[in-house]
Amino acid sequence: MGPNELVAAVRKDLLARFESLEKKSDILKAPELKDLFKQIPALEPHERAEFGQKINALSNELKELVASAAAPIQQLTPIDVTAPMDINTAFPSFLPAEHGSVHPLMKEVEVLSGIFERMGFSIEESREIDDQYHMFDALNFPKDHPARDDYDTFMTVEEDENGERFVAPAHTSTMQNRVLKKYATNLAKGQPIAAVVPDRVFRNEDLDARHEHTFYQVEGVYVHKGVHAGMLIATLQEFLSEYYKKTVEVRTNPFYFPFTEPSFEMALSCPFCEKAGCKVCSFEGWIELLGCGMIHPEVLKAASIDPTVYTGFAWGLGIDRLVMMKNGIEDVRHFESAKLTFLRQFND
Ligand code: DAH
Fold it and tell me: Minimal CB count within 10 Å: which of 3, 8, 290, 338?
């Protein structure tokens, strides 16, 4: 048998043995393989190179067989479980993403929060379920007082530990007590409490073009030594002028809220007709926009702030109305309607 036939015969034997071996790497220690190497010096010099290459090729082939036997039987394509679905699977046919946009109210919440932030106010979030203490008691609404009925408040069947139903907040004033407590330490440091709360509120309203069960308000709270109503008016006039990008006038009328004394309703001069009268202001020249006043001493006391030392003002402004006027929207119900024909108009 010549050298080439010898390698071919050994290869055949070893491949057959490889199949039956339990520990596949034992094939690399096969004595037949070693014997082949030992035969090289006995060959004629011109035969050695070719014979050597054949043995090496066989040795490499066996090594590869051993390596692939150690690898998992089936190689699965790895997936990145943290990747968006379209990386791992075909993209389902959703509404194309380029048609999505920020809701017009959310866009304006950003704008007005930015203005108040630049005026030195912190931005706080409200909540969608609260208790009657924060909605009424802490705001100086006596128990069973008819003023509570003005707020058409949705309530849960479930009751809290005081036997009172939870509420879906009907105004952002529900956050006043928390905000006052949160920032009360500012006062001792000689700094004011200055915060706004833009968020969603709910009322059991009869719905029409001006009334919706779900709407947005921005509450404002400012407390310091020597704060007076002139500062309240100046602050809101400054905000409204900044928001409508032109100087507006404001007008206050006396009003009643349990949590402010004195209380006012504030109107602004129509930013579109400069008081000449137009459709936006129902030809009045003025637009009633918000409730405000000097924070009632009982409300400060409920947050452990001494009303003989500190005074403050607060307001609650309807955001929907503000945005409707800015964009010429005629019906408040569009906002919650989810109508794409409405929403797409704000898709910039
Ligand atoms: N919470 C009142 C409402 O929704 C608005 C309001 C009036 C808020 C006077 C205030 C305020 O903070 O001082 O009708």
Answer: 338
CB 219 near ligand 1, within 6 Å: yes
Nearest CA to ligand 1 atom 9: 292
Residue nearest to ligand 1 atom 5, measured at CA: 316
260 lines ligand 1 (CB under 6 A): yes
pLDDT tens-digit map of 281-325: 889 999 999 999 999 999 999 999 999 999 999 999 999 999 999
Q: Name the CATH superfamily for 103-126+170-346.
A: Bira Bifunctional Protein; Domain 2 (3.30.930.10)
> Is residue 257 in contact with ligand 1, taking CB distance under 6 Å?
yes
Indicate the domain borders of the chain: 3-70, 103-126+170-346
- Rounded distance between C-alpha atoms, residue 259 and residue 147, angstroms: 11
Write a three-state SS string for 77-119. CCCCCCCCHHHHCCCCCCCCHHHCCCCHHHHHHHHHHHHHHHC
Cα 235 from chain centre:
29
pLDDT, position 92: 62
- pTM higher than the cut 0.85: no
Low-confidence ranges of the chain (pLDDT < 70): 72-76, 85-99
Phi, psi dihedrals of residue 218, rounded to the nearest 5°? -125, 120
CB 132 less than 6 A from any atom of ligand 1: no
255, 259, 265: residue to mutate for ligand 1 pocket, most atoms within 8 A of CB: 259
DSSP 259: T
Beta bridge partners of 194: 222
Whether residue 169 has its Cβ less than 6 Å from ligand 1: no
Q: What are phi and psi of 105, to 5 degrees?
A: -70, -40
Q: Using the structure block, give the residue that is written with the tokens 């060959």.
A: 43
